[in-house]
Amino acid sequence: MQTFHYRRASGVTTITRHIGGFTLIELLITIAIMAILATLAYASYDSFVVRSRRAAAAACLQERAQFMERFYTTNLSYFDAAANAAPVLAQCDAELQPHYQIGYQVTPTAAAPRVYTLRAVPQGAQATKDNARCGTLSITQAGVRGRTGSAAVTDCW
Predict the structure, then answer these.
(1) What DSSP character marks residue 122?
(2) Beta bridge partners of 2
(3) In angstroms, rounded to a whole number, what is the distance separating the alpha carbons of residues 57 and 136?
(4) Which residues, listed in sequence order, are joined to residue 137 by a DSSP beta bridge?
(5) Residue pLDDT, tens place only, 94-152
(6) Is the separation of the CB atoms in 16 and 3 below 8 Å?
(7) Other CB atoms within 10 Å distance of the CB of residue 153
(8) Which of 47, 81, 143, 148 could lock onto 135 through a cystine, CB 3.0 to 4.6 A?
(9) 139, 118 contact by CB (below 8 A)
(10) How many structural domains are present in the chain?
């Protein structure tokens, strides 16, 4: 707020004028605060994306394990003798394919028809951001869940 005094022949006139706007310092402080908040928000968002992709991979492994169990109840084996191979697994969401490679770690064979391990190997940016924490997720025919990273299994699944 600024006050101006004008002298006139009839006396002194006081005019109070309110000047609006921001100073350059106020504007720079505001921009700096916004940049800090944006950096924190992006880091949080990036972490959320990694965790949600990991959860999708875990769900995909569960789906495939259930498919293997349904195949077992029909054929009494995880190995498809007619095709001389492991059964073709149902496809998970195509959105997951660029981030995880889903497949067998140990393919059921005629010699070991009741054994399998499914795994989800992170690819690309997912591998870069999540390899040390959880890494490759796996599940066996016994339902044993695993991971190659340093985090607890319950944190990764």
Answers:
(1) E
(2) 17
(3) 10
(4) 120, 147
(5) 778 888 888 877 677 677 767 788 888 999 888 888 878 898 999 988 889 998 888 88
(6) yes
(7) 14
(8) 148
(9) yes
(10) 1
- Provide the domain limits for residue 108: 2-156
CB-based contacts of 56: which residues, under 8 Å, 6+ apart? Answer: 92, 93, 95, 96, 100
Q: What are the phi and psi torsion angles at 29 (to 5°)?
A: -65, -40
- Let me know: does 157 contact 134? Beta carbons within 8 Å: no
Q: Which two tokens stand for residue 100?
A: 């995880």
> Could you tell me the two tokens for 78?
């995880």
Cβ contacts of 129 within 8 Å, gap of 6 or more: 46, 50
In the chain, the amino acid numbered 87 is P
Q: Taking the CB of residue 157, how many other CB atoms lie within 10 A of it?
A: 18
Q: Is 102 helix (H, G, I), strand (E, B) or coil?
A: strand
Structure token pair of residue 124:
């690309």
Indicate if the pLDDT at residue 38 is higher than 90. yes
3-state secondary structure of 62: helix
Per-residue confidence (pLDDT) for residue 39, from 0 to 100: 94
